[in-house]
Amino acid sequence: MSVIVAKWTIDEYHRMIDAGILSDRKVELLQGEIVEMSPEGEPHAYSSGEAGEYLAKLLAGRAKIRHAKPITLPNDSEPEPDIAIVQPLGREYREHHPYPENVFWLIEYASSSLEKDLETKSKIYAQAGILEYWVVNLKKLHLVVFREILDGDYATKLTLTGGTIQPLAFPDVFVVVEQIINS
User: For a pLDDT cut of 70, what percent of the chain falls above it?
Assistant: First the structure.
């Protein structure tokens, strides 16, 4: 006997949200599947909050930093990355969540969700055309940087524990890795 999983479109997912069906659940839509999100522990909440504030100062006026808010992707996905660095489109985001073309890069903080963030989400983001994706491994306190999309996946994966990194969208900006990891 095989199990058949019901797949949902973004429109159906939005109708469930509007109807209040998912109001008491912390979920996101990944490739048509409604997936439970891991609860945030203290290190996760602290590190993502501090990094968001650091990036907001570093990129003031050039990008908008969104914390745990949805982005809409064409592969029936509406994930809620911990930090999304997006174009500062102001009130346009009242009409829609950021699309891939509005995203400069994404950051996830992971401990219990590490496999999902490194494997599943990296493929979803690459297939959607997100040019850069960072994962902070809270267990080992390092930053994994995904870049260079090739055949629907990231061809380059760097692991950093210190130093600086220049985001692809802002090559003139030097991000201090320790400020993102917040070890």
Answer: 99
Take residue 57 and report the two structure tokens written for it: 């100062």
Q: Tens digit of pLDDT for each residue in 96-135?
A: 999 999 999 999 999 888 888 999 999 999 999 999 999 9
Bridge-based pairing of strands 132-137 and 103-110 is: parallel
Residue 126 burial (C-beta neighbours within 10 Å; 0-12, 13-18, 19+): buried
Q: From CA 116, how far away is CA 107, in angstroms rounded?
A: 13
Phi first, then psi: what are they for 16, rounded to 5°?
A: -65, -40
Alpha helical stretches, state H, the chain:
10-18, 42-58, 114-115, 122-128, 177-181
Global model pTM greater than 0.90: yes
User: Regarding beta strands 33-36 and 27-30, do their DSSP bridges make them parallel or antiparallel, or are they unpaired?
Assistant: antiparallel
